[in-house]
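Action item from last meeting closed. Structure (180 res):
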């Protein structure tokens, strides 16, 4: 892996989304090693340098498959403030891309999450053109519901989706779909 920051892949809304690099490892620990990420995401907890290194290596392997794209959210192409990602779902009845995101607690309240989701939604529409773009959010995760609404998503009446957590019981998620 390189120590350099890779070029941004997606730019807009005052953001530059780019692949993770080894230079990001300390920043990733500062962003993701907190109870908020442990509660709502499948990230390792504690999230230390080894977990960050494994995550970056996995993100590069996944990107090569074309099924998953994990990008650092930055405003300058350098300092990561969080992450936005997509997964091409193969277990859905129609062509579906699921987005997910997380902004470090120290960077929240600046509209980064909703802008990153809007930007990734546009990118997915232009490059993949799926029938549906979705977010999966726990009903008790009110801040993420606000982000979904601000990014142009609406709650569906789909059956809840169950996902395993690293620790504890499975989490039940509601489906939000991007408006056309």
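Sequence:
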């Amino acid at each position: 892996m390189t120590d350099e920051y890779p070029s941004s892949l997606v730019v807009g809304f005052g953001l530059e989304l780019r692949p993770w690099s080894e230079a990001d490892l300390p920043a990733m620990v500062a962003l993701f090693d907190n109870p908020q990420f442990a509660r709502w995401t499948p990230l390792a907890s504690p999230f230390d340098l080894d977990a960050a290194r494994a995550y970056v290596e996995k993100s590069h392997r996944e990107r090569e498959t074309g099924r998953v794209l994990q990008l650092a959210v930055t405003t300058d192409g350098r300092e990561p403030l969080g992450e936005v990602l997509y997964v091409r779902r193969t277990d859905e009845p129609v062509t579906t891309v699921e987005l997910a995101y997380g902004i470090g607690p120290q960077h929240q309240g600046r509209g980064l999450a909703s802008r990153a989701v809007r930007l990734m939604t546009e990118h997915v529409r232009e490059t993949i053109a799926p029938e549906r773009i979705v977010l999966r959010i726990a009903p008790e995760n009110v801040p993420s519901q606000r982000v979904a609404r601000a990014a142009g998503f609406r709650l569906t009446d789909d059956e809840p989706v169950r996902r395993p957590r690293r620790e504890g019981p499975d989490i039940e998620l509601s489906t939000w779909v991007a408006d056309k």
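Note appended to the action item: Residues 24 and 80 are 7 Å apart (CA to CA).
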